[in-house]
Amino acid sequence: xxxxxxxxxxxxxxxxxxxxxxELSVTTQDKVALIHALAQxxxxxxxxxxxxxxxxxxxxxxxxxxxxxxKLPKDVEISALTPNLxxxxxxxxxxxxxxxxxxxxxxAFTQKNINCTIAESIARFEPVMxxxxxxxxxxxxxxxxxxxxxxxxxxxxxxxxxxxxQLLALGCYEISLGDTIGVGTPNKVRALLELLxxxxxADKLAVHFHDTYGxxxxxxxTALSMGxxxxxxxxxxxxxxxxxxxxxxxxxxxxxxxxxxGLGISxxxxxxxxxxxxxxxxxxxxxxxxxxxxxxxxxQCSHK
Length: 304
Fold this sequence. Notes:
By secondary structure, this protein is of the alpha/beta class. Helix content is about 45%, strand content about 15%. One of its GO terms (molecular function) is lyase activity.
């Protein structure tokens, strides 16, 4: 089975955005320091902020300030969430290399979250795509609730496929499949990917698992075995799940790197430096990392 694993995996680090927007606020300096530390650990793709209404997501209100303060090597790419044209224009002004847009595979979730249908949510992205194309900016599409939805329950793979096709037709170079409430299990993930891979090349798909029920690493292993080579994760497991109080949110980047190293898959990321970046931001948040690997590394250090 190992012959099916990708030789190298691209990590999209979402801790500075998807992670921190679900945590207590930290200072702009803390965010800048986190992104610099992630880059120094070898991470090349970092989602650094979100150009959304500060009324709805106050933790991301300083995204422009954060991104403008960054001094990163040329091979590190910064992306930001740009749900509308105004957000995309701000992101462009900040100098990001990639826009990210989002919808869901569940009509109920889309209605509750952004008060419109899936089709309407996708139509809203057209001006963002036009701006991106004119400025040679890549656009990544996120699809939430690819396995289950907090309002409608199970989500059928056919529905996910339909939404992915629409985003690709719009011009997204890659679709990130989000298990937003973390209910996925390896068999469900396999069934979903078996259908999607009949219609979409593996290099256009990424996986974004939340660890609410502790299944994220098992689900990532399944995706890797099916040829998926891009994984979204958050340093220290930042970000709670808004639908399950006290539950963990994003899978921890440290845990993903440990899995990949164990499988002999190249990432170019220094695990110890990554764990240090996680400890520093967690100190600012006054919390422990959720990452099992990070906690194990810290325990080893204290015993030396």
